[in-house]
Amino acid sequence: MRADPRALRFGAAVTTVVLTFVLVTQSAWLLVAQVVVFAFGVAGRSPYTVLFKALVRSAPKETEDARPPRFAQGVGLVFAVAGLVGYVAGIMPLALVATAAALLAAFLNAAFGFCLGCEMYLLIRRLLPAANMEVPK
């Protein structure tokens, strides 16, 4: 499966805005919404990508493997869930640090095109030979 890198950066930009609002407002409900978006992203169905495709009709000049960005969405999901646990349990250091970590990763992708989760995916594939096996379709 291939992904449009423009849509991925758009999604990272929207995520950056959402997570910034989460930190400013300390809204667990807004973080719940982002958790849902990350979960859909892991499944390859990010609402932000759907929005991008509705706004931009031109075909991408190039595409990229969708597996690293989907892994990155999973990493974002883990941090967002940890942040949500922190907000719900009243453990503010956990809430703030986990949410800020997800925000930092989204910002790096949106602003500089550097996908931290994608790089983690590639590193894991290099370090673990079993991770290089293709999954049968």
TrEMBL record:
Membrane-crossing residue ranges in chain numbering: 7-29, 35-56, 77-96, 102-124
Keyword check for Calcium: no
Pfam families: DUF4395 (PF14340)
Domain DUF4395 as annotated: residue spans: 4-126
Keyword set, alphabetical order: Membrane, Transmembrane, Transmembrane helix
Record InterPro entries: DUF4395, UCP030042
Domain of life: Bacteria
Transmembrane among keywords: yes
Stretches of the chain forming a coiled coil according to its record: none
Protein name per UniProt: DUF4395 domain-containing protein
Lineage of the organism: Bacteria, Bacillati, Actinomycetota, Actinomycetes, Streptosporangiales
